[in-house]
Amino acid sequence: MDTFTAMTDEELVVSYACGNNEAFDLLLERHKQSLYNYIFYTVHHNGLAEDIFQDTFIKAITTIKQGRYTESGKFKAWLMRIAHNLMIDYFRQRKNENTVTNEDFEQELWNNASLCDDNVEDEMVKKQVLNDVKKLVTFLPKSQREVLEMRYYNDLSFKEIAERTGVSINTALGRMRYAILNMRRMAEEHNMVLTFD
């Protein structure tokens, strides 16, 4: 880890993209406090702040591993922007859940294709993707499978997962990170497409 300490964020991103997981651990360590503070002061709720914090890093991991990171020299600002967008999405979703009524929007509701049931083909694709995902989950190491299932199937926060599994939040996040990377690798090896579109 000492050799990494002198590296810039961008050098660490490149190192991580090349497969060095310690580089990402240092990026996480460098920016976790300021990122968490930014999220918490916006949402004013510990559990929600932790979830958005974890989701921000998962999104960052995914983007870097897919080779789509292009923010040279601006890693921290990029992280903050991901968190900002996730918070906007959360509040937009909450607003929509609380304001859509048939009286105000009946015409739009009935004529909006995005709100209609999927056709048979879409349903079949979704079912196949979900079945593929379930299969891949069974091949994960137990510790990774456990965190993934608690997060996505039981909707637990990373704090709750850490408490239930007796590990730190960082360890829970790490296990989730490796679970996603392993599933992506297995999907690529077996030519599986894990998207609905």
Q: What tags apply to this protein structure?
A:
197 residues
User: What summary fits the major beta sheet?
Assistant: none
The radius of gyration over CA amounts to: 19 Å
CATH H-level name of the largest domain... which superfamily? RNA polymerase sigma factor, region 2, helix turn helix motif
Secondary-structure content class: mainly alpha
Average pLDDT for all residues? 78
Poorly predicted sequence stretches spanning 5 or more consecutive residues? 100-118
Specify the helix fraction band: over 70%
Element string (H = helix, E = strand): HHHHHHHHHH
Strand content: under 5%
Can you tell me the CATH topology of the largest domain? Rna Polymerase Sigma Factor, Chain: A
Work out the number of β strands.
0
Characterization of the model:
The longest helix is centred in the middle third of the chain and has 25 residues, at 75-99. Helix 3 crosses helix 5 and helix 8 crosses helix 10. Mean pLDDT is 78; it is low at 100-118. Helices cover 77% and strands 0% of the residues. The N and C termini lie far apart (40 Å). With 197 residues, it is mostly helical. The chain folds into 2 domains: 1-116, RNA polymerase sigma factor, region 2, helix turn helix motif (Rna Polymerase Sigma Factor, Chain: A, Orthogonal Bundle); 121-197, Winged helix-like DNA-binding domain superfamily/Winged helix DNA-binding domain (Arc Repressor Mutant, subunit A, Orthogonal Bundle), CATH 1.10.10.10.
How would you summarize the topology of this molecule?
Blueprint: H1 2-5, H2 9-17, H3 21-43, H4 46-65, H5 75-99, H6 102-111, H7 120-138, H8 142-153, H9 158-165, H10 169-189
Helix pairs in contact: 2-3, 3-4, 3-5, 4-5, 4-10, 8-10, 9-10
